[in-house]
Structures are given as structure tokens and as C-alpha cells.
Amino acid sequence: MSDTPNCWLCGRPLGDIVQWHHPVPKAKKGKVKVPIHPICHKTIHANFTNNELARIGDSASVIRDNPAIAKFVAWIANKPADFDAPTR
């Protein structure tokens, strides 16, 4: 059994590079931080504004329900933990 934490967004094990995401942005008084892959972090911020993230709160499932995020999570599912690619 592994002690490796999983990514808040995609659920894959985290690799050597871990970023900390504020589900409610710091600019919107968010205090909670969750571990996340850099590519997952970039994808969230490419698809949601800080205001949208503040309204969503800390629900990863609501973020994953977004069609663009759902497509991304399905695509990244079998990639290695430290996989990275340009984000659109």
C-alpha cells in the first residue's frame, strides 16, 4: 500500500512536483490548500475565473463535472505522475 497522496482533481498519485491549489482562491479569502499536479492546476485556472472558483467552493466533483475538465481528466488518467504538456 502506497503512502503517496493523490491529486485533488484527477485522483492520480502525485509525483515529484506537487503544487498546492486553493479551491477557493486566496484573493477570495480561501484558506484551504489541496495537493495537485501542475498540469491539473494549470487546467483549472485555464477554465475557471477566481470568481467562479469561489462560487464552486472546495468541491472537486463540481469542477470535474465541467465538460472541458471531464475530458481532460479522462485524457490524463493513464499518464505518468509527472507528465506535463501545454495547457490551452
Name a few traits of the molecule.
88 residues, mainly alpha, two-stranded antiparallel ribbon, 2 strands, 38% helix, globular
Describe this structure in words.
By secondary structure, the chain is mainly α. The protein is 38% helix and 7% strand. It has a two-stranded antiparallel ribbon. The longest helix is centred in the middle third of the chain and has 10 residues. The model has no long low-confidence stretch (mean pLDDT 93).
Strand order of the largest sheet: 1-2
Profile the largest sheet.
2 strands, antiparallel
Can you write the helix and strand succession as a string?
EEHHHH
> What is the tally of helical segments?
4
What's the quick description here?
The chain is mainly α and 88 residues long.
Write the layout of secondary structure elements.
Elements: E1 19-21, E2 34-36, H1 38-47, H2 50-56, H3 60-65, H4 67-76
Antiparallel strand pairs: 1-2
